[in-house]
């Protein structure tokens, strides 16, 4: 039976991985199932640790009551209290859009097709409506990540409900890229971890939902939202460039979502290596193989 305890006295820069390795040095490999590191007031950090057995947890509590040191500090241990999530404490309405979802990064290439640059499965998605923010939780190459997408980074949201299809697709069209956090060490990651910087080169995010998935009203109220019953298809795509100098760019101020955008986009043409890149300021991105003249990329003859 699993049991959680709280340990206080770690250095402020300690990582969850270091805490896990330290504790398993006393209790045995594989006895720690989860570690959450938090910062206290002052120079010390605490850790909420979940052990796979009560015996392992009690051993650490016993060692701490005598003398369990980490670096130049002695640790204190106690049973972990059930905590209220931070969003509940602040009174923020919180919606779980689903677990084990598939998240696709890429771009629209037509009204009924989405070009996929990179996909990741087993993704959990939350919506905090009062602060108008999406949170995506995923794991890639044994590292846990959290992607935060704020209201200011979203242009519009479109829900595709193809008739007779077992899934529906929530497409989020972007002004800017998500903030990327490494959960384990609680810091912002400045480099896109996806292959070929696929996240930064994507102008849209497509979330695959079960056909019976509930769409919260808050999503429709706070974002420029519309639904489409037409057929929708995901197709393999390719990144614009592996060169970090050509990754996703954002420009301009966010417009009011309540008004429908009728003004045409302002287009800048840039020439690089005999390729005409049409950059659309309204959307804030470059696309490849787009059927519309506003954003396509073509080779000079």
From TrEMBL:
It comes from the Eukaryota. Gene3D superfamilies: Zinc finger, CCHC-type. GO terms for molecular function: nucleic acid binding; RNA-directed RNA polymerase activity; zinc ion binding. SUPFAM superfamilies: Retrovirus zinc finger-like domains. This is CCHC-type domain-containing protein. Keywords: Metal-binding, Zinc, Zinc-finger. It comes from Citrus sinensis (Sweet orange). Residues 277-292 form the CCHC-type domain. The keyword Ion transport does not apply. InterPro entries: PH_RDR1/2-like, RDRP, RRM_RDR1/2-like, Znf_CCHC, Znf_CCHC_sf. Pfam families: PH_RDR2, RRM_RdRP1_2.
């Amino acid at each position: 039976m699993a049991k959680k305890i709280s340990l206080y006295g770690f250095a402020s820069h300690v990582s969850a991985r270091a805490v896990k390795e330290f504790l398993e040095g006393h209790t045995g490999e594989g006895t720690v199932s989860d570690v959450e590191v938090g910062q206290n007031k002052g120079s010390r950090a605490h850790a909420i640790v979940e052990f796979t057995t009560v015996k392992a947890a009690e051993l650490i509590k016993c060692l701490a009551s005598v003398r369990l040191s980490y670096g130049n500090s002695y640790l204190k241990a106690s049973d972990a209290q059930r905590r209220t999530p931070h969003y509940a404490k602040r009174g923020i309405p919180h919606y779980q859009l689903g677990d084990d979802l598939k998240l696709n990064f890429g771009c629209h290439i037509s009204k009924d097709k989405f070009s996929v640059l990179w996909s990741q499965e087993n993704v959990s998605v939350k919506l905090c409506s009062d602060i108008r923010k999406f949170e995506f939780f995923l794991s890639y190459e044994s590292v846990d990540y959290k992607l935060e997408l704020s209201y200011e980074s979203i242009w519009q949201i479109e829900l595709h409900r193809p008739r007779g299809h077992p899934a529906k697709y929530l497409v989020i069209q972007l002004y800017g890229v998500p903030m990327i956090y490494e959960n384990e060490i609680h810091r912002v990651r400045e480099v896109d971890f996806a292959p070929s910087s696929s996240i930064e080169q994507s102008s849209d995010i497509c979330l695959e939902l079960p056909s019976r998935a509930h769409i919260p009203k808050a999503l429709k109220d706070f974002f420029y939202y519309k639904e489409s019953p037409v057929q929708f298809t995901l197709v393999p795509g390719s990144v614009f460039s592996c060169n970090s100098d050509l990754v996703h760019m954002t420009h301009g101020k966010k417009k009011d979502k309540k008004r429908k955008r009728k003004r045409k986009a302002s287009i800048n043409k840039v020439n690089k290596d005999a390729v005409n890149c049409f950059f659309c300021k309204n959307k804030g991105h470059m696309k490849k193989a787009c059927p519309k003249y506003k954003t396509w990329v073509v080779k000079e003859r």
